[in-house]
Specification:
InterPro entries: Cyt_trans-like, Pantoate_ligase, Pantoate_ligase_C, Rossmann-like_a/b/a_fold. With 285 residues, the chain is an alpha/beta fold. Helix content is 40%, strand content 20%. The structure holds adenosine-5'-triphosphate (ATP), pantoate and beta-alanine.
């Protein structure tokens, strides 16, 4: 595997690969890699001639500077893990290379950014859209791989790809979990053993909500989840939402929904975590 640091270098490599007819699979990440990321790399390696992974902790998508400063970084371990699962190129640029000037771009995703992550992390999806656009221009992938853990991000990227006419397929893979049910996440590395145990309540809350889908109205399920998590003082719920899986808009009732996304965000100790599950709605006769 080759490690590339400069944008100009990855651009030349990609141009040569494209000229020789190779298909390119791309996995953008912020590093501190775990099995959720490695599943995406394996899929890209299986489905394309060449796999490129980027590791870049993108400053413009952080609405909280402490979160940016303390985001886990482990490039040496990441490099070894990527080589072991068949990645061909690791693109690990510096912030100066990706942002030679302050970015003044502004993307708007309408109602998609007015809910959940969009509402609670002002500017976040603008930063994601800026860096994903820059990376797509440099890497020119045929397929780009994302995880369902960041479900709303997948919807934003799909809208970006459609809106700007990027000629690529967005591929989404399911959330990989720890044995405890906790969704794998780079930020989990900032939690101690007790906090990791408290964090399992995000997934437990989703399972509890799933068990009530079809049996109770939306408002009653939400009340139950808020009450359930209020009994875990080490976890501060930010939102629990029942949403349409494609538009991410909250659903007022389940009668017209074949499936819904159960979405949650909460703080555990110093870390903010998100999780979601897409579940079928079995309509009662
Ligand atoms: N547990 C997981 N299962 C599947 N895909 C995942 C998982 N965690 C992250 N991904 C996906 O990997 C890609 C890179 O994500 P990122 O580098 O932000 O890692 P992360 O674990 O989501 O970190 P954090 O949530 O702490 O930022 C994204 O498309 C993300 O959805
Ligand atoms: C897509 C991404 C790499 C953009 O920085 C990031 O938001 C992530 O890791 O999910
Ligand atoms: N995985 C989403 C990136 C972020 O939390 O900023």
């Amino acid at each position: 595997m080759q490690v590339i640091e400069q944008a100009s270098a990855i651009r030349s490599i990609v141009q040569a690969l494209r000229c020789s007819g190779k298909s390119i699979g791309f996995v953008p990440t912020m590093g501190a890699l775990h099995n959720g990321h490695l599943q995406l790399i394996r899929a890209a390696a299986q489905q394309n001639d060449i796999t490129i992974c980027s590791v870049f902790v993108n400053p413009t998508q952080f609405n909280n500077q402490e979160d940016y400063k303390l985001y886990p970084r482990s490039l040496e371990q990441d490099t070894a893990a990527l080589a072991a699962v068949g990645c061909d190129y690791l693109f690990a640029p510096t912030a100066a290379d990706m942002y030679p000037e302050q970015s003044l771009l502004h993307f708007s995703f309408g109602v998609l950014e007015e809910v959940m992550e969009g509402a609670h992390r002002p500017g976040h999806f603008n930063g994601v859209a800026i860096i994903v656009s820059k990376l797509f221009h440099l890497v020119q992938p045929h397929r780009a791989y994302f995880g369902q853990k960041d479900l709303q991000q997948v919807a934003v990227v799909r809208q970006l790809v459609q809106g700007l006419g990027f000629d690529l397929e967005v591929v989404c893979y399911p959330t990989i979990r720890e044995a405890s049910g906790l969704a794998m996440s780079s930020r989990n590395k900032r939690l101690d053993v007790q906090q990791l145990e408290h964090a399992t309540h995000l997934h437990k809350a989703l399972l509890r909500a799933e068990a009530q889908i079809g049996a109770k109205p939306v408002a009653a399920i939400k009340e139950d989840i808020v009450a359930y998590l209020a009994k875990v003082p080490q976890l501060q719920l930010e939102y629990f939402e029942i949403a349409n899986p494609a538009t991410l808009q909250p659903v007022p009732d389940l009668s017209a929904e074949p499936e819904v996304a159960l979405c949650i965000a909460a703080h555990v100790g110093p870390v903010r975590l998100i999780d979601n599950m897409i579940v079928k709605v079995l309509q009662q006769a």
